[in-house]
Amino acid sequence: MLMLCYLSSILNNFYSDLEYWIVYMTSGLAGSLLTLLFMDGATRSLGASGAIMGLGGVLIYRMFFGKSARAFRYAGSYFIIAFMVIYNLFYGLFAENVNNYAHFSGFLTGFFLAMLFEKLRQRKRSKPGG
Q1: Residue 68 banded pLDDT, cuts 50, 70, 90
Q2: What are phi and psi of 86, to 5 degrees?
Q3: If we measure between CA atoms, which residue out of 102, 107, 108 comes closest to residue 35?
Q4: CA neighbours within 13 Å on the CB side: how many for 120?
Q5: Residue 75 exposure: Cα atoms within 13 Å on the Cβ side
Q6: Quick check: 4 and 48 in contact, CB under 8 A?
Q7: pLDDT-derived band of residue 47, with 50, 70 and 90 as boundaries?
Q8: What is the C-alpha to C-alpha distance for residues 60 and 48, in angstroms, rounded to an integer?
Q9: Prediction pTM value
């Protein structure tokens, strides 16, 4: 829950409420779908980790690949949170009872949605009157 608060406080400065909602919900759905597809039917999974990792994917994209990556990368608290996101991705590979399908699919969904949002903003800016 703490990670959700940290990520939200950062990303709300850069994305609209609708964009934030799209990332959160789509990442959560992607995590659930991959869990259903690849995990044993007897395995139960509960939580919002796919959605939260989607927000982490947005942060990582913005820090390292986005238009403002250079300035963004040097913000200390952002770097610490990005480290926590990456740590959680890899920690799950070695721990039991961690839904890696939700974590990785949520992360990748958020990462690619951030890329899509940036492309849409660039296209809007390049249009006359945009």
Answers
A1: low
A2: -65, -40
A3: 102
A4: 8
A5: 15
A6: yes
A7: confident
A8: 19
A9: 0.86
Q: How far is CA 68 from CA 1, 23, 74, in A?
A: 27, 19, 11
Here the tokens at position 118 are 């940036």
User: Would the pLDDT of 130 be above 60?
Assistant: no
In whole angstroms, how far apart are CA 3 and each of 7, 20, 44, 83, 113? 6, 15, 23, 12, 19
Confidence check: pLDDT of 10 > 90: no
Torsion sign over Cα 96, 101, 107, 108: positive
Could you state, in order of their start, the residue ranges of all structural domains in the chain?
Answer: 19-36+48-124
